[in-house]
Amino acid sequence: MRLSAVALRAAGAAWRECFPLQGRDVARWFPGHMAKGLKKMQSSLKLVDCVIEVHDARIPLSGRNPLFQETLGLKPHLLVLNKMDLADLTEQRKIQQHLAGEGLKHVIFTNCIKDENVKQIIPKVTELVGSSYRYHRSENLDCCILVVGVPNVGKSSLINSLRRQHLRTGKAARVGGEPGITRAVMSRVQVCERPLIFLMDTPGVLAPRIGSVETGLKLALCGTVLDHLVGEETMADYLLYTLNRHQLFGYVQHYGLDGASDDIEHVLKRVAMRLRKTRKVKVLTGTGDVNVVQPNYSAAAHDFLRTFRSGLFGPVMLDRDVLQDCPPAEL
Fold it and tell me: What is the pLDDT of residues 265-319, one digit of tens each?
């Protein structure tokens, strides 16, 4: 939701031009054990005909693991940008143009929860495999696809969605709203009968080095790491900074606030009071201990993040700053 110009003036809006990133150690946010998962994927390459990389549509240009293309690049590659229902895709053409410049010419936007655009995947995979050399798998009648991506972008949801679409059957892969649900490379799961196609789910693997703290914060907002590693109040502050810069004020309406604000302490205090998220704290005074009711900032930050991730603030493009640096999309 965008507030009117009158409401903005009334709020005295003067948004932060940058977010303080100094002193934040992005390296400790991301587990170092993920190289093991990538090695297992490499060893599975001889068993597959195509690689589907799943990523979050809210960060289409940030946070993808470059090692996927480098180490798995011998196979046909399809990029699926999932959670499109949560992303502002006003500049979808520009996104596709930028990705094409990186060598990613095959991109499909999906919403695997509602099976949106998922039917495009099997025909595209069939086309890619049919036009590529299958090496020692040329005599196999079935097609096997390796599904890769950073944590919590919907890899398992994609497999289940494909099974619903083509086999009319239920779940084969466990899904969840936190990173780390899939912990091992699975055995093959059938997703289509004609043509006969199997998929292999894999654990989420982040890049060994994140390019910047801001990229790390975007990944964290999308749930690729456990919130407590970054700090929910830090993430809530970065989210507030992003929403205000993009003039997306859905949070004001959602929580019934008096107006937009760039002060995270002020916003979380109002959110906590609205949600009745308070706690009693003992304060030592000259006459003894006194119980004081204070806002529960941690609970408010948790709800602020949860509400954003569920799309209740409206669709958001976290990579808008990256898109602004891209050349105009060709018509």
Answer: 999 999 999 999 998 888 877 777 888 889 999 999 999 999 999 999 999 999 9
d(CA 276, CA 303): 12
Q: Is the bond leading into 195 cis (omega within 30 degrees of zero)?
A: yes
Burial of 15 per CB tally in 10 Å (0-12, 13-18, 19+): middle
Is the pLDDT score of 235 beyond 50? yes
pLDDT of residue 136: 67
Q: In this structure, are strands 189-192 and 107-109 parallel, antiparallel, or unpaired?
A: unpaired
Please, where are the H alpha helices in 32-180? 35-44, 66-72, 92-101, 121-130, 155-166
- State the chain's mean pLDDT as an integer: 86
**CB distance 93 to 118 below 8 Å:** no
The per-residue DSSP string of 282-313 comes to EEEETTEEEEEEEE-HHHHHHHHHHHHHTTTT
- On the question of pLDDT at 329 being above 60, the answer is no
Residue range 22-77, pLDDT digits in tens: 777 776 666 666 667 777 788 788 889 999 999 999 999 999 988 887 777 778 99
Q: Distance between CA 123 and CA 166 in Å, rounded?
A: 12
Match 């046909």 to its residue by tokens. Answer: 76
Partners of 290 in the β-ladder: 283
Which residue is listed with tokens 């239920």? 170
C-alpha 300/C-alpha 126 separation (Å) is: 47
Q: Which amino acid is at 250?
A: G
| Token pair 């006003």 in the structure block, residue | 90
Residue 156 and residue 173 in contact, taking contact as beta carbons nearer than 8 Å:
yes
Q: Going by C-beta distance under 8 Å and a sequence separation of 6 or more, which residues neighbour residue 30?
A: 206, 210, 216, 225
